[in-house]
Write a structure and sequence with these properties.
The protein is α/β, with parallel strands linked by helices. Helix content is about 35%, strand content about 20%. It has helices at about 15-20, 30-35, 40-45, 100-110, 125-135, 160-175, 205-215, 220, 225-235, 240-250, and strands at about 5-10, 50-55, 70-75, 80, 95, 115-120, 145-150, 180-190, 260-270, 275-280. A hairpin with a 7-residue loop joins strand 9 (about 260-270) and strand 10 (about 275-280).
């Protein structure tokens, strides 16, 4: 059967993608950000998965206010980088895994989660920036990727407990697939940031690091945190962190297995007026 070997958590700040694309990663402002992913790039080479299941949010490119799916799974054979207003990022086309994606959709929907099945869409920085951070600049991504888009832009957005339970359903789906695939699940977005209003530029270091602590040690308890706490403490865009709970819910310890090993943890401020958080957890 297939199995989830690890989970990866990372911010997906669009300016990080621009720094990569414009050759600015070595500049003093960006140097510390990218140094935090040096370990991760090597780790991914040594722990290369067969498939990455990548949880992210679309930023009004594939979806708009005309159509807002709460959870959408990409089942296509490939996904092109989206034009977000200044042309597509100069990164490889994302190759999908239609067989596993369709199996997960079947299993998770039968497990009482309503997913939108997407057979054609472009993917924006929410998905391509994490790939750039983990893989660097490459001619092709090292493995197929299943995009899983979550609405954390337009309220109402899914509860943390719902996302955590969905991660558990995704683990069950992966483990019922009858090929011996190594799958990683990535949760992206966050950490604390607000892009507008009187609190624009908000960053809460203490809250962010407490979130990382609880994500490692008490994910079930963390999943009960109400939305208002995210907004109050982490800013209006801090709600993106519920997507990390999907990845955490898919780990083995949630289903009675051993505690995951923390392979890497990184936190840095600032990066384009946001906090960058990053974590790698390996299944026991």
């Amino acid at each position: 059967m297939a199995r989830i070997t690890a989970s990866v958590y990372t911010s997906h700040v669009p300016a990080i993608g621009a720094a990569v694309d414009l050759g600015k990663t070595g500049e003093p402002y960006w140097q510390k950000v990218f140094a935090g992913y040096d370990f991760s790039k090597q780790w991914l080479k040594e722990n290369r998965p067969d498939v990455v299941f990548l949880v992210y949010n679309d930023h009004a490119t594939a979806f708009s206010l005309e159509l807002i799916p709460t959870f959408a799974i990409g089942t296509a054979a490939e996904f092109k980088p989206a034009d977000e207003g200044w042309g597509p990022r100069p990164v490889p086309v994302v190759k999908g895994h239609p067989q596993l994606a369709s199996h997960i959709a079947q299993s998770v929907i039968q497990d009482d989660f309503d997913l939108t099945i997407v057979n054609r869409m472009d993917v924006d920085h929410g998905l391509t920036v994490p790939l750039s951070l983990m893989c660097g600049q490459v001619d092709e991504w090292p493995c197929p990727v299943i995009p899983f888009a979550v609405n954390v832009v337009q309220y109402p957005v899914p509860a943390g407990r719902r996302c955590f339970a969905l991660g558990q359903a995704i683990r069950r789906a992966v483990e019922s697939y009858d090929e011996p695939l190594k799958v990683q699940i990535w949760g992206t977005g966050g950490m604390s940031h607000q892009l507008q209003g009187s609190r624009a530029g908000l960053i809460n270091r203490e809250w962010d690091n407490a979130f990382l602590d609880r994500l490692i040690a008490d994910p079930a308890g963390l999943s009960q945190m109400p939305h208002i706490d995210y907004v109050r403490e982490a800013g209006s865009e801090g709600i993106e962190l519920v997507m990390w709970l999907i990845a955490r819910g898919a780990m083995a310890d949630v289903a009675g297995g051993g505690k995951p090993r923390v392979a890497h943890r990184f936190y840095h401020v600032p990066a384009s007026n946001t906090a960058v958080g990053h974590l790698i957890l390996e299944n026991a």
